[in-house]
Amino acid sequence: MTKKREMIFSIVRAALAILISLVVAMLLIFISADGSSVGEKFKMTGEALKQLLIGPLFRVNANGVSFEGKRLADILSAMIPTIFTGLSVCVMFSANQFNLGSEGGIMLGAFVSAVVAIYYPMPAGLHAVMAVVIGGAVVALVMLVPAILKVKLDVSEMVCSLMLNYVIMYIIKYLMNNYYADKTKGQIQTYPFLNSSRIASIVNNPVINSAKLTWGFVIALIAVIITGLFMYRSRWGYQIRMIGINKDFSKYSGMKVGFIIVISQVIGGFLAGAGGGIEVLGRYNTFSWSSLPGYGWTGITIAILAGNNPYYVPLAAFFMAYLQKGCDMMATYANVPMQLISIVQAVIFLFFAAEQFLSKYKQSLVVKTAQEEIAAKAALSKEGGAANG
Amino acid sequence: MANLIANMLTPEFFFSIFRISAPIIYATLGAIVVEKAGFANIGLEGLMMFSALFGSLISYYTQNWFWGFIFALFVGVVMSLVMGFFAFKLKTDIILVGIAINMMGSGGTLFLCKVITGITEGNTLASTTGLVTSKLMIPSINIPIISSIPFIGRVISGHSLLTYLAFIFCYLTYLMLYKTSLGLNIRAVGENPGAASSVGVSVLKIKYIAIAFSGLMSGFGGAFMSMSYAQGWSLDMVAGRGFIALAAQAMGGGECFGGMLSSILFGFAQALGIKFSSIGVDSNLASPIPYAITIISLTIFGIVNKRKAYKK
């Protein structure tokens, strides 16, 4: 199939997947909408859909529609942690390692970074960098557990990482309750981070400040480029992708499969942990997470939407953040529970991951391309034949 | 420590091991059968969440535990068939289908709960605990003669109907897998789908049956969670049992009896965790015990397997 046709196919496929999920969302909104008559329900559904689709960027009211910079800033800032988990999952899934530990990883990274930010004074600037790097490094070390168990003992990395998520969450809660909590506060939270460790807003502007759009966003984009270069321009990245495509082939062609599998999960862990640190130092003054944040699961969706290609991660993260914001808007203004997001997310996820979705359409495109090629060749040989004759 | 041991050697403690093991056994049986058919269903967690929610809701709306229970099974089977459609028809990676189902199982059940009941406790939490009365729970059974035996009676008798069924199903699943033609087909499809289809077994049909069976088991497990283990459904109540079942399947060597024993081991770990917190250990230190034990026992299992492989 020609490049152009392939492109058209992926766009049509993505659009259709999103459309289907929106139809599902619409049905669910319709069911949940207030209103005594069907007409009223339709009206409420329309209102809710408007909030879902354009609410993330525009204020919708009686006077019409007006652009809201704050909401855009919110969306961009919400992308920070999910870009990191998305990248993390990209690297691990590329090697066909279904490690689901980025959920616990981002929480652990956030916690470790917070501890460094509170208890270990360092010069401004360096402090934040060290806190984030240490957070990432600790998670990278923890990810050695599922990775090495997988390589050495063939223990499922998926089950192991899932169990680790729970262990990490409870241990952090335990440490918070008993050692790190600021007992003067009603809520369980740490002491405030030292000022030297804060990650500042990109520009000093009240809207940007309140949305917490920090340098973390820029770092996330840099991480995208670095991960992309790593995956497509480095030897390890190539090996990770090769192992994902065909493990046996990689082994027989002399790659150290076990080592690369470990590396992929360590890098994934580092990305998730660093993301947690950047998120918590940029957005909050103290660490107060008491349960898994869910960014890991969003990261999996993002990686699937991006087709495990790091360069598409920001786009997918933007889409998910947009959808999340839309659901929040709908919850606020149209009284639709915001957990709708998890159903919509799962439906999009399923259709993106479905290889045979629209396979007939793809088939027809392939056939068309082939026919054109044959026709072109036939025309060519006829010409050639005519010239010879 | 002596205090703890004295606390443990009570009939209540052993009773609780069986009670806690039951939902894990169901999920493990589901995991075993799909594994025999050659794939992994990691969506057991999400399936159990859906079954738990609908079991609880339908029993409330019909004011009858039986219909709630039946509906929980129905939901489990239907959702698992949907999973099968995506996995087998649309060729989605079965692991990704499982992840999607788990995503829905967490937030999606809360959404459905809020929408269907209209309850919102605060802005984020909702549960069906307020709706369900003890009358709507799956009944417990006192076994006539055994219940009068001093210690053992209090351990074995008085369990929920579903707890007994869990153990019966271990045997039934074993019979199904090894003594029926269906079981033979399932194992054949898992071991060599090409060979199975060459003798006229419909591989696709067998795979659908296997995944539906895992859905049915999740239905039992989910119903147990919301209609016997706890009174009513609440967010994330399955708490990783579907995942623990995957570990139990692996540790049990993919067999029913071994899977049952591993499930009981996890039940024991969890009961121990509960005991720890009852004698004053921070519950956050006790709660991760079953999960940590899962990792440790998978490691031991891995080492043992490796040794065996060397010997061969």
Q: Separation of termini of chain A?
A: 34 Å
| H/E element sequence of chain A | HHEEHHHHHHHHHHHHH
Strand content of chain A: under 5%
Order of helices and strands of chain B: HHHHHHHHHHHHHH
The proportion of strand residues of chain B reads: under 5%
Number of E-state strands of chain A: 2
Read across the widest sheet of chain A, the strand sequence of neighbours is 1-2
Poorly predicted residue ranges of chain A: none
Q: How many domains make up the coordinates of chain B? A: 1
Shape of chain B: globular
Helix content of chain A: over 70%
Rg of chain B is 20 Å
How far the N terminus sits from the C terminus of chain B, by CA atoms, comes to 43 Å
Q: Mean pLDDT of chain A, rounded to whole units?
A: 89
Structural class of chain A: mainly alpha
Could you say which structural class the secondary elements and strand pairing of chain B correspond to?
Answer: mainly alpha
Distinct helical segment count of chain A:
15
Number of helices of chain B: 14
* Low-pLDDT sequence parts of chain B: none
Quick synopsis:
The complex is a heterodimer of chains A (389) and B (312). Chain A is an all-alpha fold.
Describe what you observe in this structure.
The complex is a heterodimer of chains A (389) and B (312). Helices cover 74% and strands 2% of the residues of chain A. Chain A has helices spanning 3-32, 38-54, 69-94, 102-119, 126-153, 157-180, 206-211, 215-233, 235-245, 247-252, 257-283, 295-305, 313-334, 340-353, 359-388; strands spanning 58-61, 64-67. Chain B has one domain. Helix content of chain B is 74%, strand content 0%. Chain B contains 14 helices and no strands. Chain B is globular, with a radius of gyration of 20 Å. The relative contact order of chain B is 0.19. Chains A and B meet through α1, α5, α6, α12 and α14 of A and α5, α11 and α14 of B.
